[in-house]
Amino acid sequence: MSNIRMVVFDMAGTTVDEDNIVYKTLQKAINEAGFDISLNQVLAEGAGKEKLQAIKSILSVYADNHDMELANGIFKAFLIKLAKAYEINPVYPQPHAAELFEELKKRNILVVLNTGYDRATAQSLIEKLGWQEGTHFDGLITATDVSKNRPDPDMIELAMKRFNITAPSSVVKVGDSIIDIEEGRNAHCGLSIGITTGAHTPEQLASAHPDNVINDLMELLPLVN
């Protein structure tokens, strides 16, 4: 794939290794509200989504519950629990993330992070990693920066607008969930790539018909050269 100008990476599970803290915390917040949802169910239905939407989806699919007020209450409890969890738990870059970012920089390819997190959560993660915008990566787009979230293409389109990129074929999306792949396809990216380091299994990723599925971030380089 030639003429790539930007790669948009998901964060948790793709470029950030936080041991599924977010989804374990989401599971805890839901179950403390009176449900019995497994972590696999949380991952299957909630991975990659803006987190209030993830709660709504999980409850509607696995509990046949469509109570908006309840979902909002769980979401508020989740944010408090997640902030505490990130304070005490370690967070690491995914293997080879820093090396890949550096190699892309040498090729004049922009590195943008996007996420189903709100901006405050995403920023706290980046600070824990010691990453700096403009040094380690070029931009951050979060769920609270757009009106419509994954699988809608708004976050990728905002990134393109920010860096004056008009051709979606020059953009690559990489993520660890079905909804990441769908987001890339809906944005008409040149490549929409799944990675097996996070939420979804290779089989689940394949069900979204990605252009490629990779097992390590450095496997991206031959695809963009």
Automatic annotation (TrEMBL):
InterPro entries: HAD-like_hydrolase_sf (IPR050155), HAD-like_sf (IPR036412), HAD-SF_hydro_IA (IPR006439), HAD_2 (IPR041492), HAD_sf (IPR023214), PGP-like_dom2 (IPR023198). One of its GO terms (molecular function) is phosphoglycolate phosphatase activity. Gene3D superfamilies: HAD superfamily/HAD-like, Putative phosphatase, domain 2. GO terms for cellular component: cytosol. Keywords: Hydrolase. The keyword Hydrolase applies. GO terms for biological process: DNA repair. This is Phosphonatase-like hydrolase. The keyword Hydrolase applies. PANTHER family: PHOSPHOGLYCOLATE PHOSPHATASE, PHOSPHONOACETALDEHYDE HYDROLASE.
